[in-house]
Specification:
- With 165 residues, the chain is mostly helical.
- The chain has two domains: 114 residues, no CATH class; 45 residues.
- It is built from nine helices and no strands.
- Helix 1 runs antiparallel to helix 6 and helix 8 crosses helix 9.
C-alpha cells in the first residue's frame, strides 16, 4: 500500500501542472475516506466531478485496499487478477508500474492471504535482540549472546525461595 500511495501521489504531481485545482490536495488522496476532515471531503467531492487521472489512481488505491480484507484464497486471486488488469490498462505510468510490481510478487501476496503472517513479528524480535546487544555493549562469544537472548525472550519464571528476594 505504501507503493500504491506513492504512485497515486506521483500521478497527482504529474497532473497538477495541468490542473491547478490539485495543488495542496496531497493528503486528500493519501488518507482513508473516513479520516478526511469535512473540508477535505467537500474538496474530494468537487474534484471527483472532474475527469482526473488522479481520481482514477485514487479509485485503484481504494479497490486494492479492499483486497486485503478478503479471506478466501481463490476469491483473493480472482480479485487481484482483475485489479492487476485494471492497473495495467489504466494508462497511468505509476499505476502500471505498481501492477507490474504486484505481478512480480504475486506468490508472496497470495501466501500472505493464506497465512496472514508478515514479518512484523520478526522485526519486533530483531529489535529486542539489538537492544540486548546494545545494553551489554557487545558479547565475547556467541553462547553468552544466545543465553542473554533466551533469558530476555524466553518468558522464564524463576520461582526463587523468598530468602533470595
Amino acid at each position: 500500500m505504501k507503493a500504491v500511495n506513492k504512485a497515486v501521489d506521483q500521478v497527482r504531481r504529474n497532473e497538477q501542472s495541468d490542473n491547478k485545482e490539485l495543488k495542496k490536495t496531497r493528503y486528500i488522496w493519501l488518507k482513508n475516506k473516513n479520516n478526511l476532515t469535512k473540508k477535505q471531503k467537500e474538496k474530494l467531492k468537487s474534484l471527483s466531478e472532474m475527469n482526473l487521472k488522479t481520481m482514477r489512481a485514487y479509485n485503484l488505491r481504494l479497490s486494492l485496499q479492499e483486497f486485503w480484507n478478503i479471506d478466501d484464497l481463490t476469491a483473493a486471486a480472482s480479485y487481484l487478477q482483475k485489479w492487476y488488469l485494471w492497473a495495467i490498462r489504466s494508462q497511468l505510468e505509476p499505476m502500471v508500474k505498481i501492477g507490474q510490481f504486484i505481478n512480480r510478487h504475486w506468490q508472496g501476496i497470495m501466501n500472505y492471504i493464506e497465512s496472514r503472517i508478515n514479518n512484523g513479528i520478526l522485526e519486533g524480535l530483531n529489535s529486542i535482540v539489538q537492544t540486548i546487544k546494545r545494553k551489554a555493549r557487545g558479547f565475547r562469544n556467541l553462547n553468552n549472546f544466545m543465553t542473554a537472548i533466551y533469558l530476555q525472550c524466553g518468558k522464564l519464571e524463576f520461582d526463587l525461595p523468598k530468602a533470595f528476594i
